[in-house]
Amino acid sequence: MSAFPVLQHHLLFLRPRLHLSFIPFSPRLRRRLFFSAASVQCSSSLPSSSSSTASRDDIDEVAEPPGVPPPPGSGRETQQLIDVNPPRGTRDFPPEDMRLRNWLFQQFREVSRILSFEEVDFPVLESEALFIRKAGEEITQQLYNFEDKGGRRVVLRPEITPSLARLVIKQGKSVSLPLKWFTIGQCWRYERMTRGRRREHYQWNMDIIGVSRVRAEAELVNAIVLLFERLGITSSDVGIRVSSRKVLQAVLQMYAIPERLFAEVCVIVDKLGKITKEEVEKELMSAGVTSEAVKGIVEVLSLTSLDKLEAVLGSDVEAIADLKKFFSLAEHYGYSQWITFDASVVRGLAYYTGIVFEAFDREGKLRAICGGGRYDQLLSTFGSDDIPACGFGFGDAVIVELLKEKGLLPDLGRQVDDIVFPLDEELEGQASMVASALRRKGHSVDLVEDKRLKWVFKHAERVNASRLILVGNSEWQRGMVRVKVLSTREEYETKIDELN
């Protein structure tokens, strides 16, 4: 058979570039129409293309009949649009959201600066061993953990305190105590999502390492209150519940419960309010706590008066002395109206050992805003000598929900100092010189070209620009530019080297 018939068949599929590029059909519909036309004109199957002189680049993609996908690797697979949403439980930060995030982080940093804390940071990817503990903590079931290509077990950190402990151990005697460190980092937990709870969030942590006295906890709560006040939140909006892990420890000692059960009991008790009291009691008994001790634990945890707790435990219990000292310091700091005693606060992480606290919205619409406490024995779980320490974690999600609820979100529109605009195309280079000079002086400058002047004025309004600087032929020849102050509508000319 001659090559002519083969070429004739293939000519049906040659792309007439100039003509088809203007067909107002979607690519999918165009392929269907093209396939139909080919079917009408070709009643027999195409022979092998090995003898054809047409290249693949010259052949349009042909749609397959319904239900028959193109063979894999054929080069004719239809490119599907990817899912444009981020993974479930995560967020994008377009400019308006990024402005809010940066503003909030700046509040975190400013409060930390006021209290003379230093900023540190850690990798988001950590060793899995840092976060695998055996107290039944919920967090250990929520890890984004996997084996890397080197066979190492790693995890996207679910919290920050173990990373801080690791760095303290690494620094060793090269740093002098006490340490006052803060960080703002991203955390990951695969958990059920609710309002203010996602699978990733950013968290502000403040920690004091090397101070055993209760003043350290009082300093941390002072930082939290200062932040609330800076954000416009009052003590009528938010309260801070305070207790001590030593309260629960004293109750267990009263009923001769082994010390080894302490961390596990704390984790179970932290579920009060999340599951029913009966379920908590059942879990406690399953852990080996006697029914009499379970009853005593539940009764003590219902107390909201420090005087009543002292009547139950006695005045010589360490927990009572710590809490009295803390509430006395709160009076001196001036935030006593923010705090209340609540024996049910134990926090869900096994490493807490002393005073614990958490902030809550008084209307009860949201989960805990932040929480923390003392963890004097965390470093020994990593094989190091213990150092007294306490700290807190403050997430970004719940506080933003609260600010929305209270109408306290700031207006954070885009802000630009100057817009530079050449009135003639041949002045683009000169406009670039003006913009570059202003940027060297620290101005935020948007250089706009190829637009009508009417659009430029609207754009200046959108970005809250302070000035519009017009580069025109007549002005430039005199070494000048025209300046419009957009807030006052004042307009004047100035020398280029005097433009500030």
From TrEMBL:
Residues 88-410 form the Aminoacyl-transfer RNA synthetases class-II family profile domain. PROSITE patterns: AA_TRNA_LIGASE_II. It is an enzyme of class 6 (ligase). Belongs to the class-II aminoacyl-tRNA synthetase family. One of its GO terms (molecular function) is ATP binding. It comes from Musa acuminata subsp. malaccensis (Wild banana). This is histidine--tRNA ligase. Keywords: Aminoacyl-tRNA synthetase, ATP-binding, Ligase, Nucleotide-binding, Protein biosynthesis. HAMAP family: His_tRNA_synth (MF_00127). It comes from the Eukaryota. The keyword Nucleotide-binding applies. InterPro entries: aa-tRNA-synth_II (IPR006195), aa-tRNA-synth_II/BPL/LPL (IPR045864), Anticodon-bd (IPR004154), Anticodon-bd_dom_sf (IPR036621), His-tRNA-ligase (IPR015807), HisRS-like_core (IPR041715), HisRS/HisZ (IPR004516).
